[in-house]
Design a protein that fits this description.
- There is one protein chain.
- With 137 residues, the protein is of the alpha+beta class.
- Helices cover 50% and strands 13% of the residues.
- The protein has five helices and four strands.
- The strands form two sheets. Strands 1-4 form a two-stranded antiparallel sheet. The protein has a two-stranded antiparallel ribbon with strand order 2-3.
- Helix 3 packs across helix 5.
- The radius of gyration is 17 Å and the shape is elongated.
Length: 137
């Protein structure tokens, strides 16, 4: 599968941290979602710690992958899957997978097919659980 990388891991991490700082500003606008500054600083530190060892290869993402943006059509007499309404960007390919878990609409065969084509890296379960938790909040 072609992998299109345009940013180094260092640039992606810096981009995440900068984006994270913007999110912290947005969090403050919500009155810190009822978290105190100590708890927010712990969250920032833990996030940086977890991501400091995560070096995903930049990938072209769909950007809005959920069950409502998939379908099927006929092509040359065959039924083939299609994805539509993309909001593409380069990032960690696990972001698209996380969105499918968050919003649903995909069955086990989708994930098996994805793993067959391009297996996801082995990660500590706490990292994957934190990704799912962050996407759910």
């Amino acid at each position: 599968m072609p992998r299109m990388g345009i940013l180094s891991h260092t640039h992606l991490f810096a981009l995440f941290i900068n984006t994270g700082e913007k999110r912290l500003y947005m969090l403050r606008l919500t009155n810190n979602a009822r978290y105190n500054d100590k708890k927010i600083n712990q969250l920032v530190s833990k996030t940086r710690e977890l991501l400091s060892v995560h070096n995903p290869e930049p990938s072209l993402l769909h950007g809005d992958l959920w069950g409502g943006n998939k379908g099927f059509c006929k092509k040359d007499g065959k039924v083939v899957p299609v994805l539509f309404d993309p909001a593409t960007y380069y990032g960690d390919r696990e972001a698209d997978i996380a969105m499918t878990y968050l919003f649903g609409g995909f069955k086990a065969d989708f994930y098996k097919g994805y793993e067959w084509e391009w297996p996801l890296p082995e990660v500590r379960s706490e990292v994957r659980d934190n990704k799912r938790m962050c996407n759910a909040s």
